[in-house]
Specification:
Organism (chains A, C): Peribacillus loiseleuriae
Mean pLDDT of chain A: 84
Number of helices of chain B: 8
Helix content of chain A: 40-55%
CATH superfamily of the largest domain in chain A: Winged helix-like DNA-binding domain superfamily/Winged helix DNA-binding domain
Family (chains A, C): Belongs to the ScpB family.
CATH topology of the largest domain in chain A: Arc Repressor Mutant, subunit A
Distance between the termini of chain B: 43 Å
Radius of gyration of chain A: 22 Å
Pfam family, one (chains A, C): SMC_ScpB
Low-confidence stretches of chain B: 1-7, 170-178, 248-255
Mean pLDDT of chain B: 76
Oligomer: heterotrimer
CATH architecture of the largest domain in chain A: Orthogonal Bundle
Number of domains of chain A: 2
Number of strands of chain B: 5
Keywords (chains A, C): Cell cycle, Cell division, Chromosome partition, Cytoplasm
Shape of chain B: elongated
Radius of gyration of chain B: 34 Å
Strand content of chain A: 5-15%
Number of helices of chain A: 10
GO biological process, one term (chains A, C): chromosome separation
Strand content of chain B: 5-15%
Number of strands of chain A: 6
Structural class of chain B: mainly alpha
Helix content of chain B: 40-55%
Order of helices and strands of chain A: HEHHEEHHEHHEEHHH
Largest interface: B-C, 55 and 62 residues
Strand order of the largest sheet of chain A: 1-3-2
Strand order of the largest sheet of chain B: 3-5-4
């Protein structure tokens, strides 16, 4: 009989889920086992990290599990952030910039919905580098700031106008736009039938 | 849409030719021009017959196949004879250019196949988004654009994000896919409202951030309103919307 | 003397960097050690993942080191993902991309000569997916754009560098086009006769 490496599977799942983590429920349903068993596997993983020279740890907050780096290594991570701060834009900043470029005007909340993570920092970086600026306020209760790209953005990427941005392919567009309207329409049709 | 079924099976005349060569088990270095031309033309006729839009490239290829075929029928004249470095006579084959092109194309078709396998293999690996390291960073660096990134870096980042995002969707989809029907959702909403015996914020009904779930909930609400099972209240424009049941309504779907 | 857990530190750093990855240079500078030593630590980490029941692996893609989930766990992770469809590139795009990858820098006309068909559309798709970019202009009258592959191309196919592309024409055709082998055998027989 083949032994299934549940611990490894859970590690892989949590890793891929990133900062969002996974709830006990989600894990249980993916693993197709009882919650109690899932908890046991999680406990195993936790101990594995503690006993080994791993740089990771398992964190549990309100039944949501996520992987994180061990506190004792934070000095090195700090160094990493400082050393990469000087040149270039981080992946996070580039993602944010792309979203703003293609979907402006857009609020921070909307950007975060697309990225699935907090975006204060990258946004701050982009503003400080003058690639992005506030271009107005959204309507509605919050009156959130709307962001857009600047003239410097165009200059920097050698574009005359925003229209010169490469068109996103249909499949990209689809992922990006969520296809909400279509789904809506489909469901409506179903109810009509 | 029917006429769109399409030549999609083939990536162009070269691809079609390779297919024919393969199917007829022909040696690519010794193509029987009459046979292949006939087959090729019949294929094109079929496409036309099916009212498929035959791209001009296919017709151009048809013409050159016919040209090669006729060249091969013409006997050689003395002055056209060719000799290699050692003075040995050899024939220039009218098919040479075509064969060369086919072999070249085939090479890349195979390479495309290899890429496809790499693509599949790569899709088995999942990466993690970079952690938010804001807490470690000092104040935003004010150094001006000497960023050393290009438009393509930005597009690349976007693609990475989109690839990754597919994964971040919470599990609800899978669960709800197994059909939380509108009827069921209507029941849930009713049960929910009856339990609190008061009104509930419209938005609180949309707790699961999954688009399918949102759509179903929305349709369920519309349906309930239509059936006069629930009321929607809003005190003024842009104010919060509330949902409430009538008192003592029967449960939807219970009859 | 306290022993520093370099392996754990590198794991933590790579974890934090996520799919942005870290280059050997970046790691070396954060760890403040020689490149050779950094490489040793990376090797240690790699072996640690292989030997243990970890769900992770260390990969080198697009010239940076990244952590990734082990392929054998992909079935479970896919359960977390919305049915993503096939998602892969079309045959036309793959052919175009193959030609560009092996013959870059190359103009659109040159690609079309090899494929024998118009290639605007696939090229557009590839550019919008950031797999291909303009890398200059050809000399001569038209000054046509020259195309080449991007960093994202390497990432998309899991390659470390372009040198890792499978050798052109060296691939075995057996499982690709059936019948070829038979044909070969036939020919062989003929020559024997």
């Amino acid at each position: 009989m083949e032994v299934i490496n549940w611990k490894g599977i859970v590690e892989a799942l949590l890793f891929a889920a990133g900062d969002e983590g996974l709830s006990l429920k989600q894990l249980t349903s993916v693993l197709e086992m009882a919650e109690l068993q899932t908890k046991e596997v999680l406990q195993d993983l936790k101990e594995y990290y503690e006993e080994n020279e791993s740089g990771l740890q398992l964190v549990e907050i309100a039944d949501v599990y996520q992987l994180a780096t061990k506190k004792e290594h934070s000095d090195y991570i700090k160094k990493l952030v400082e050393s990469s701060g000087s040149g270039g834009l981080s992946q996070a900043s580039l993602e944010t910039l792309a979203i703003i470029a293609y979907k402006q005007p857009i609020t921070r909340t909307e950007i975060e919905e697309i990225r699935g993570v907090k975006t204060d920092r990258p946004l701050q970086t982009l503003i400080s580098k003058a690639l992005v600026k506030e271009i107005g306020r959204a309507e509605g209760a919050g009156r959130a700031y709307l962001f857009g790209t600047t003239k410097e953005f165009l200059d920097y990427f050698g574009l005359k106008t925003l229209k010169e941005l490469p068109a996103l392919g249909a499949s990209t567009e689809e992922n990006f736009e969520q296809g909400e309207a279509d789904l809506f329409f489909e469901k409506f049709q179903e109810t009509l039938e | 849409m029917a006429y769109n079924i399409k030549i999609d099976a083939f990536e162009g005349p070269m691809d079609l030719l390779l297919h024919l060569i393969n199917r007829l088990e022909i040696d690519i270095y010794d193509i029987p021009m009459a046979e292949i031309t006939e087959q090729y033309l019949s294929y094109i006729h079929t496409m036309k017959h099916l009212e498929l839009d035959v791209a001009s490239e296919y017709l151009v290829m048809a013409a050159s196949l016919l040209a090669i075929k006729s060249k091969m029928l013409v006997p050689k004249h003395e002055e056209e004879r060719l000799y290699d470095e050692e003075g040995i006579e050899y024939e220039e084959d009218p098919r040479d250019e075509l064969v060369e092109k086919l072999i070249e194309y085939k090479k890349y078709k195979l390479a495309a196949h290899e890429l496809k396998m790499l693509e599949e293999d790569r899709s088995l690996m999942f990466m993690k988004p970079p952690s938010d390291l804001g807490e470690f960073a000092k104040e935003a660096e004010m150094n001006h654009p000497n960023l050393n990134v290009s438009l393509y870096d930005m597009l690349g980042a976007l693609q990475k994000l989109l690839r990754r995002k597919k994964l971040q969707k919470p599990m609800y989809t899978k669960v709800t896919r197994q059909e939380v029907s509108i009827e069921k959702r209507m029941d849930q909403i009713m049960a929910d409202l009856q339990a609190i015996k008061g009104r509930k914020s419209f938005f609180e009904l949309f707790l699961e951030p999954e688009k399918e779930q949102i759509v179903i909930t929305f349709l369920a609400i519309l349906e309930l309103v239509k059936l006069n099972e629930i009321f929607l209240e809003q005190e003024q424009n842009f104010a919060e919307i509330f949902v409430a049941t009538k008192d003592g309504v029967r449960k939807v779907g219970s009859d």
